[in-house]
């Protein structure tokens, strides 16, 4: 559990950074980019990036890669939720304010975010992982979450 928390903490610190929207690592080096450009919300999708650190005590490379990928997905979901909380819904209220008073909405948002698609996965030279999540706005709308345009 502490390893997942550590991976999430590392990812949280790096989440404020900005790179090429389609790359998270430097070509041929396996190092994380020093600058990222986050896409956020486009016409049809909401994007979020996640980073997960590998447990270096694991001797098996596959296990290190799998655990770092899982940690990066959880971090990407957290980053997507954090981003969406600041978005305005129709009517001018933020998602964060709406879920404070509506537990059903909170459950719907949680379920929709967990259904976000991993569209890019990259591993770093130390078996850490960087992923990009994509959530169709249509999925939010189908769940009854109408974002202000």
Layout of SSEs?
Blueprint: H1 2-15, E1 45-52, H2 61-85, H3 95-101, H4 103-114, E2 117-123, E3 129-136, H5 137-142
Antiparallel strand pairs: 1-3, 2-3
Structure description:
With 149 residues, the chain is an alpha+beta fold. It has one domain. Helix content is 43%, strand content 15%. The protein has helices at residues 2-15, 61-85, 95-101, 103-114, 137-142, and strands at 45-52, 117-123, 129-136. It has a three-stranded antiparallel β-sheet with strand order 1-3-2. A hairpin with a 5-residue loop joins strand 2 and strand 3 (129-136). Helix 1 (2-15) crosses helix 2 (61-85) and helix 3 (95-101) crosses helix 4 (103-114).
Nearest-integer average pLDDT: 81
The percent range for strand residues is: 15-25%
Shape descriptor reads elongated
Low-confidence stretches: 1-21
Number of strands: 3
Kindly report the spatial arrangement of strands forming the biggest sheet.
Answer: 1-3-2
Report the major sheet.
3 strands, antiparallel
Rounded Rg = 16 Å
Query: What is the ordering of alpha helices and beta strands?
Result: HEHHHEEH
Determine the number of helices (DSSP H or I, runs of at least 4 residues). Answer: 5
User: Roughly how much helix do the residues carry, as a percent range?
Assistant: 40-55%
Number of domains: 1
| N-C termini distance | 39 Å
């Amino acid at each position: 559990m502490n390893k997942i928390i550590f991976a999430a903490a590392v990812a949280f610190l790096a989440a404020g950074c900005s790179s090429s929207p389609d790359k998270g690592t430097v070509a041929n080096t396996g190092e994380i980019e020093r600058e990222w450009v986050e896409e956020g919300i486009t016409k049809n999708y909401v994007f979020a990036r996640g980073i997960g650190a590998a447990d270096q005590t694991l001797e098996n490379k596959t296990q290190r890669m799998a655990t770092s990928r899982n940690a990066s997905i959880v971090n990407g979901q957290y980053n997507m939720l954090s981003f969406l909380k600041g978005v305005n819904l129709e009517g001018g209220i933020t998602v964060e304010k709406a879920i404070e008073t509506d537990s059903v909405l909170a459950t719907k948002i949680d379920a929709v975010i967990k259904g976000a698609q991993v569209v890019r996965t990259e591993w770093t030279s130390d078996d850490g992982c960087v992923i990009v999540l994509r959530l169709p706005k249509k999925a939010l709308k189908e769940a009854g979450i109408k974002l202000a345009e």
